[in-house]
Amino acid sequence: METIKLIQELSDAFGVSGFEDEVREVISGRIQPYVDELRTDVLGNLIATRKGKSDFKLMYDAHMDEIGLMVSYVDEKGFLRFTTLGGWDSRILPAQTATILTRKGKKIKGVIGTVPPHITKLEDRQKAIQIEELFIDVGASSKEEVEKMGVQIGDPAVPSYPFETLNSNVVMGKALDDRAGCAVLVKTLESLQGQTLDVTLICNFATGEEVGGRGARTAAYQIEPDLAIAFEGTIGADVPGIPPQRQPVRLGKGPAITVADRSLVVNRKLIIALEALAEKGKIPYQYKLPAFGGTDAGVIHTTRGGVLSGVVSVPCRYIHSPFSILRIDDFENTVKLAREIVLQCRTLLK
Ligand SMILES: [Zn+2]
To answer: What's this model's pTM, rounded to 2 decimal places?
Structure first.
C-alpha cells in the first residue's frame, strides 16, 4: 500500500501508552494477509509471526504507544487537570489542542489553556510553566457538564493535530515516534510476501514503551528470540542551535544504527553485520550518536538468559512534541535494511 497513506493512518491513530487499541486495529488490518499467526497478549502487544524454514527466531519490535496525558481531576468549573504519560517537556504544552478519549470511545476536543500576556507579569513570563499549573478547557462550565460529556478521571488525552504532507518527501505527524517504526514493520512484512524465509520473523508491536518498555519486556519473554531489532523513530536534531556532537541523528542520511544508548550497548558483531548489510545493499546509513535516549531493545536484551539486540531508527525531528517530521527516503531506506536483515542475518552472524 502507499507509504505516505500508511504512515498517516498510523500517526493519526490514538495510542497513548496503555490505550493502544486504535493503533493495534490499524496494524492488524494491514498485516493480516502477510503473516501466519497474529495474536494479542495480556499487555496488549500485537505479536505477528511469519514462519521460515528454520526455528531461528528474529524478533522485530516497534512500539505502538505515544506519549500522552491523563485526566487526573475535574474542578467545579469544568476545567480538567492532568498528569503525563511518558516524557513531556511542560514548556511545549500550553496552547495546544488536546483530544480526550472517553470510556465510550468518544473523542472530546479541548485546549490546554494559557493565561493571556495582557495579565501576566513579566517575571512570570520568564519562568518555565509547571504541569500542575496547566489545565484542559473542553468548553464546559461545570463538573456536571464534563460528566455528561462522558469525560472521567483516568481518561487518556493527547495534543493532536492531523497528519500533513510538507512536500513529496517530508511528512509531519503527531506520533512518528514510533508509528514510523510500526510502518517499517508493516512494509517489511508486505515486501516479504511470497518469499521463503530462512528465519522465523516475529514482529512485536509493543505497548507501553514510553512508560518503560513494559510490553517489550513480556513479549520478549514469550518469544525467546535469537536476535532482536527494535525499530524506532528517533531524535533527529540537525536544527539550528545544536552543535553536531549533540545531534543524535540527522535527516536525509538514512537509517540510524545505534551503537549505544542509555539502555543498551550493542554487541560489535551485530553492528558490523548491520553495516555489511547496508553496504552490500547500497543503503545509506548513519550512526545514532551515543548515548542519547533508550528503546525497547534496552529491556529485550536483558530478557531470560540475554538476547543479542540492536536498534535501527528512522530519523525524526521534534519527537515528544505534538508535531514531528520525517523524510520518506529515510523511511524507505530503513525498510530496505529491515528486509535485508530478515533475508541475510543468519549468514552474516555466523
Ligand atoms: Zn519511541
So the answer is: 0.96
User: Nearest CA to 228 among 264, 189, 190, 261?
Assistant: 264
Q: What distance in Å separates the CA atoms of residue 287 and residue 315, rounded to the nearest whole number?
A: 11
For residue range 27-83, list pLDDT tens digits in order.
Answer: 999 999 999 999 999 999 999 999 999 999 999 999 999 999 999 999 999 999 999
> How many whole angstroms separate alpha carbon 300 and alpha carbon 314?
20
Of the candidates 9, 66, 209, 232, the residue annotated as catalytic is: 209
Joined grid coordinates for residue 166: 510538507
Domains of the chain, each with CATH number or no CATH: 3-66+174-349 (3.40.630.10), 69-159 (2.40.30.40)
Question: Who contacts 12 (Cβ-Cβ below 8 Å, separation ≥6)?
Answer: 162, 163, 173, 174
Q: 100: CA distance to ligand 1 center in Å?
A: 21
Note whether 137 and 111 are within 8 A (CB).
Answer: yes
**d(CA 139, ligand 1 centre) in Å:** 32
